[in-house]
User: Fold these one by one.
Assistant:
Number 1:
Amino acid sequence: ALVYAMRHVYGSNPGEAFFASSDFGWAVGHSLTCYGALMNRNETVVYEGKPVGTPDPGAFFRVLSEYNVKVFFTSPTALMILRKEDNDAKYRRKYDLSHVRGLFLAGERCVPEIHRWWIDYITNNNPTATSAACSNSHDIARAPEFSFAYMDGSPTNPVVNVSTDHWWQTESGSPLTAICLGDITTGADIPPIRFGSAGMALPGVDLRILRTHSDDGDEDDTSPKSTDHALEEAAPGEIGSVVIKLPLPPGCFSGLWKNDKKFFTEYFERFPGYYATGDAGFVDADGYVFILSRDDDVINVAAHRLSTSTVEETATRHPTVAECCVVPRPHNIKGQVPVVFAVLKSGSYTPSQLADAKSQIAAAVRSNIGAIVSLLPENIFFVEKLPKTRSGKILRKLLRNMFTAIADHTADTNRGSSRLSTTVIPLDLPATMEDFAVAYDIWKQLLDTPHVYSKL
């Protein structure tokens, strides 16, 4: 499965250099940098460091140039960091990347605005100039695309600097969806990149979207999930639970270490006959797969199920925002409402500018998605950094649980309890967190904001 992925998905030929920026503690690190690359007889780059600060935002590009890397694999988080620190491509332009065939993204969903920026940043071809942003999943008939086939005006240009998102899981062992570069010889053969999509299902992956019922529970709920509903496949463009019909393709996991019961209940009990990926998404009429978020990142606002990714897409388009994430917070009338945590691009901002930015983001969400989202400016927080794992994944569950902890404590406060301490987070912090100080800074910011207590 890994050799197939190296050759057919990534288009990495024996003898060529392959560079994945993940460390060996994560699936990409050992599966691709070590096993996949070496079994495919590739040169492989072992890299320790970040996209910035080691020593500057040109670190990745120096490696790509120095080692003549043909295929590069990184996370959307790295792109967001570069967008913040090198938005004008000053460091990027120091290096010739014309030899790089493919630039693959995975680990988190790459929102369209970030992917468009990345293509412009790498190739100096601005895809925004030729495609309008898609405001929500139901606008799929006019989903924004970018074709690498005519990037230099010729339908027979070579395969160079193709940037595409794709999707897989630790459990799958290798990619599940992608735009494959391995069997492509000219740019004219490359399917259009559809922004927000992770490509199409690969051979052997019988991917389906099943409708989700409101009483199915979420991943934080340890009670048994309902299996009384008949399994219904979603229509093209309809958001549901992403599943894979059994049998699973080669290379997938076959159990959990000494825990057969959890292997069944976690992955196969909820949807009999299917592997539950734990992700929410949809497939469009042309077969492009859109992985939007984890199942438990879907917000239920006044009985309306909304994907956090649609709010993130709109917020990220604001000119001051480098990256953001959206989580739900409890609301005593609507059940949940969204909260935006955003990191600003480098620069200085006055309080008035920050207040205007919050109002503009809230207005854009209302205009693009609808008033039902119920995003208020006061539920937008500008932070220095987002809490992430060492592999770059945003710890959304931690942020969500902070609000739950505040809501639970607020209920106790009505009975005379003391206020929460800004120096003690009453949660188990993930051991995989890269910087614990980030979590404490956000926790203090939340507790120092009066309406966080008063409007739960």
Number 2:
Amino acid sequence: MYIQIPTNYRLDIELNTILGQVSRSLGKYELSLANQGNIVRELILNLKSRDEEELYTYKFDPTEVRLLPNRGAVANLTVKPKPWWRRPWFGAGLVVNFQLDIKDQQNLPLPNTLPQGTLVWKPRPWWQFLLLILAILGLLGGIGFIIWRILNPDPLRLENFSANDSQITEGDEVALNWEIHQYKQLKKLVLTAKGSQPIQPITYDFSNGIPEPLGKGSVNEIPPCQVQDKQELICSNVKTGVKTKGNYSFELQAFYRNGIQMFSRNNQVAAQTTQVEIAEKPIASVVNFQLDKPQYTKGENILFSWTIARPLLLSLLQVVGNADDGTSYGEPVSYKFNQGNITDPKLKKLCTQQNQQLQCKNVPLVANKVGNFAFEIKAISNNGSDKISSKKAESKITILPKPFKIVYFKINGSEQPNLVLNEGTSAILSWRVEGENIQVKLLPYGNDVPAVGSTKFPVNQAFPLKSDC
């Protein structure tokens, strides 16, 4: 036997209003659900607008409900009106209409009519309306002020303050340019500079018109400042006296005259700045300097080699040497240049130029002193720079004395060790000895003689059978 119980889908839904009129708070509602049927119900809770626009956001807590047969549940609903600018300024308020939108997860039948709700968004308080009026008045006042400023611009404008060149070379002078519109309202100009070279502020007084340093140039020169269209003062190539290398910041301040305008500008200042870099003047520089060996004998040639960068700027090369005790090797050896061209033909044969470098190899210098010496080369430029590029050889050199040597010792012009001389004739002795710091004696006579010389003796029984030098 089977008993069939018909399915009952009855579901009771009720929406209760807790807070239905709001100013800044959220609307609050309570949704009561009762499952009067005999099956389990799984529901998803939503809202939908009954107006043309959806002027709210909402939140169910919980958003999903599971109801057992003959059981009930409660869900809390909050509704927030939006957007903020739709809130009415006055009147009865903004009415927001909505309706429950419930869905069964198993697509079971729901009541044909679902509860509806209403939220009233109260109008703004009167003081906010007052603020709106004040804001509109402020906006109109701002527009009016802008129009007034357009119709009544500042009587003075400082523009286009700059240097002739923002990067110059040491020795060149910084020159400035600027433009002043409505310059007749100008009281004074003050030029200040910050940088490597100390400079006092320069003041140009316009109380009696354009000052002389700006309005009058030298003979056959155009004045630095010219008036155009009766109101514009155009100044160009104004000298500053700044020539030293470094980074400089120039500031030009324009002070207004005392005026009778509604808004006095006598305390106002227009200012502009500009930056200038003065680079170090390029010079001919020594890249490399070396000798061919560390030790020489007096009389030999010391061979130098060197490399000079930017030879076109070269005016003079000097090679100097100093002994260990600080004494000079001798007068500096100098080589002159004319716009990079070597004037010494002997040196010219030993040098080549490539890649803006002058390379000279095996330049001779006679070793005429004995001792230890350090050599240095100096490059002097032709562009007026005070800076001299120099480089020392990596190590000192030693110059040794010449070795002792009897070049010859002759009797009557002969170097034969044994000669037969007749008594009554004369014998001429001649000699030559080389060496440093040597003492020469003629034996057996024992007296000192010069390193190179000759003497005459009579040949008799007293003439020595053997002589030594």
